[in-house]
Amino acid sequence: MSIKIRLARGGAKKRPFYQIVVADTRSPRDGRFIERVGSYNPMVPQDHPERVILQEERIKHWLSVGALPTDRVARFLGQAEIIAKPTYKEQPKKSAPKAKAQERLKEREDAAKAAAEAAAAPAEGAEEGQAEA
């Protein structure tokens, strides 16, 4: 039996509220769970103390038994310094601009650099002329 620490959604329509639960991976998202170990309320501001509530002792127990947190719960646990902060992979290469678009971006950057250098050059010349006079 594999165990996960995951979110179970509650709350009304367009007003989400999540319980952080320990559940068997085969049970439904909002269905049967083993233990409730916290809550997450995305509707309150990020700095609000009741946004993420965790029972650290129980979470540490379940992690020691072999429960695996989901990506979102791992982020919460990393912020609470219960586990190491997870590393995130770079964006997939499929979503990167294609060759022609990359060429256009490079041309725009080069043109912007040249314009900045051209604008800076006369200003430097004027400063040198004032220093000599």
Summarize the structure.
By secondary structure, the protein is α+β, with helices and mostly antiparallel strands. 40% of the residues lie in helices and 23% in strands.
- Please tell me how large the radius of gyration is: 26 Å
CATH fold node name of the largest domain: S16 Ribosomal Protein, Chain: A
- Secondary-structure element string: EEEEHEHH
Query: Low-confidence segments, ≥5 residues, pLDDT <50?
Result: none
General form = elongated
Class based on secondary structure composition and strand pairing: alpha+beta
Please report the total strand number as a whole number: 5
| The CATH architecture of the largest domain | 2-Layer Sandwich
Count structural domains. Answer: 2
On the 0 to 100 scale, the average pLDDT is: 88
Task: Determine the strand fraction and express it as a percent band.
Answer: 15-25%
Can you tell me about this structure?
The chain folds into 2 domains: 3-79, S16 Ribosomal Protein, Chain: A (2-Layer Sandwich); 93-132. The protein is built from 3 helices and 5 strands, in the order E-E-E-E-H-E-H-H. The longest helix is centred in the last third of the chain and has 34 residues, at 99-132. The protein is α+β, with helices and mostly antiparallel strands. 40% of the residues lie in helices and 23% in strands. It is elongated, with a radius of gyration of 26 Å. It starts with a strand and ends with a helix. Strand 1 and strand 2 (15-24) form a beta hairpin. The model has no long low-confidence stretch (mean pLDDT 88). The chain has a 5-stranded mixed beta sheet with strand order 4-3-2-1-5.
